[in-house]
Amino acid sequence: MLKDLIYSGIGAAMVLKEKVEAEVKKLEEEGKLKKVDAKNFLESIEQKGKDEEAKFKAQLKAALKEVIDELGLATKADLQKLKEDLQ
Description:
The chain has about 90 residues and is mostly helical. Helices cover about 85% and strands about 0% of the residues.
């Protein structure tokens, strides 16, 4: 389910990106937007997207860690320590 949610978000982002690029190109062709301005605009949107992706991943990782801690599940580190203790 989480995987489907992530893929849906990525798909929506790609569709939105394509639509924004098409609108920017249309404004360029109509002379309402300079090519340099369009390039800068698209680059700034792309950078904001990357920043948001990094922030989302950090929040997701923290949330998953919290759930794992609350459930008391063993982590790789816990299992490795147990394995070393048994040897």
